[in-house]
Amino acid sequence: QSALTQPASVSESPGQSITISCTGTSSDVGSYNLVSWYQQHPGKAPKLMIYEVSKRPSGVSNRFSGSKSGNTASLTISGLQAEDEADYYCCSYAGSGTYVFGTGTKVTVL
Amino acid sequence: QVTLKESGPVLVTPTETLTLTCTVSGFSLSNAAMGVSWIRQPPGKALEWLAHIFSNDEKSHNTSLRTRLTISKDTSNRQVVLTMTNMDSVDTATYFCARILLNSVFDIWGQGTVVTVSS
What we know:
The complex is a heterodimer. By secondary structure, chain A is mainly β. Chain A has no helices and nine strands. In chain A, strands 1, 3, 4, 7, 8 and 9 form a six-stranded mixed beta sheet that branches. Chain A has a three-stranded antiparallel beta sheet with strand order 2-6-5, with no helix packed on it. Chain B is 0% helix and 53% strand. Chain A binds chain B through residues 1, 3, 32, 34, 36, 38, 45-48, 51-52, 57, 89, 91, 93, 96-104, and chain B through 37, 39, 45-49, 52, 58-64, 96, 98, 103-107, 109-112.
């Protein structure tokens, strides 16, 4: 169970869009549409932002969207705001009841 | 309102066994649509899924840690317990419990509890 690969950091100006990639294998991301994304502010618990690749929980801004192609899932944040500055983690079901998280991406709003 | 709260020792000695408790409210551990997972995060590092348990007592464990982990539940007391044997300094982390749904979503998280392994 190797961690899913994410870029360590992404920076962009307010109002712009960013996309965070999450690369796994054919045993996890590539096999299941069970990818979720979590936002974590410093010292806080993670918060669910996207589930089942592209679904948004109630209360999450529609500026957040998800997609998947092959073994890579992506999270896009449009209209970047200061409050979006946080760490983001992807997570995928990996079969046999197990899960694997990504390496995490620090998003900085310039 | 759904909440989960972790409790356990702040400091553990190397080779000791860690026992953590997750107390839930707002949902039942007998609900077939959901379970409880444990996830940890070493300081400055990424999240790592450890284990989960569902209402039918179905359990899964992180493959790399399987021999050290035990997860169980006490439905009447609304608690899920995780034990991890042979603790080492690399196990120093914040340990979270989270509700997991059948579609593999960790939808509600506890605040986390910090565990330091040191002699």
